[in-house]
Structure of UDP-N-acetylmuramoylalanine--D-glutamate ligase:
Amino acid sequence: MSANNKKLVILGAAESGVGAALLGNQQGWDVFVSDGGTIKPSFRAMLQDNGIAFEEGGHTEGKILTADCVVKSPGIPDKAEIVKKIRNAGIEVCSEIEFGYRYKGDSKIIAITGSNGKSTTTKLTWHILKTAGYDVAMVGNIGRSFALQIFEKPCEWYVIEVSSFQLDDIHQFRPDIAVLLNITPDHLDRYNYVFENYVASKFKITQNQLPSDLLVLNIDDPAINNYLTTHSIHAKTVHITMDENKIHDEGAFVNKDNLHIRYDGDDMQASVHDLTIKGKHNQFNSMAAGISGRAAHIRKEKIRESFESFEGLEHRLEYVATVRGVEFINDSKGTNVNSVWFALESMTKPVILLLGGQDKGNNYHEIEGLVKEKVKAIVCLGVHNEPIHDFFYSFVHTIVDTTSAKDAVHAAYALADKGDVVLLSPACASFDLFKNYEDRGQQFKEAVRSL
């Protein structure tokens, strides 16, 4: 793709935007970066060091509307005035993963999406390829941006975590292996509150795939099944499931605590007890990563070895410590109700649950059964805890309010008995009391370690 004298405008100067700007500049585009807010000093320095023009604190329409192509940050919605004007002008809008794809060369892509579990599955898939000695980078929503990786150090393989927002603005992006883990309502404000629009966005991961490509689907997921009744898929599909009867020649399933991966004439088996990440949801994640590894021609022994050596994600069901018989688990990344369902589903001990933060209009009915079964007390960690009290008061007899990680940990520890687990899985965003979910998780861990 020749870019000489063509004008590339980047909207948003965070990780993905700066990556696209550097790659575009390297490839001969005339690049201009525009951010409506303040650019982080580290990103500003990267633009300055590479002689890339930029603005912050607003958008100069005259400069933006002369673009040949606009790379839009996934965080900027289509309803933003500047985006409407760009589209009305007939200017191509693409996401950073789409822009990076155009300069990836002969490299191979494994792309992973889903409402929950995509970060863990991406890291595990990357770990499998890395353990097998592949030249591989982990990019997208986890790790560095795809475009920045291509700019700095192109690899033979990319494992990409992709969100629905990134998929919304793809045109040519075509993964060799695509994984769709699950689809539950999330970010519906970006999809006119129509769940089917969000489902269609997730399935864009396979829209350009050919019969020679692979799509890994969780066939136990109702939204995925529903979509398949009315849409055809061009890629070769393999299924992951808890029900062996749903698998024919190829796919993955769990039977009597054994995880089976059937691919290319082989049936690889691993005990679920040997997986370093626990819970049924992580069995799905492991099946998806294992199938992807087999499709990338990695030997069964290396995949088994990877399952046993994998260290999970920070802030995702992360073991912190055991203090006088009370176990502490950090799941600060659990920012929606479905994530909390997965976290509770994997608990085998009585739970003191830390919930709360910036509520996204949560419907707690989804976790009601698991809370009744497993939760002894709830410690609220947020500014506005009324929705939690209103929903749970009739069947959780102890609900305590706190406004700091330290207070929440002390309150939970006081409520816990030996053999209990204190689980931070908030179901909410963190911005009322913390910078982000990482900050919330770090403060939780520091408070536990200071007990």
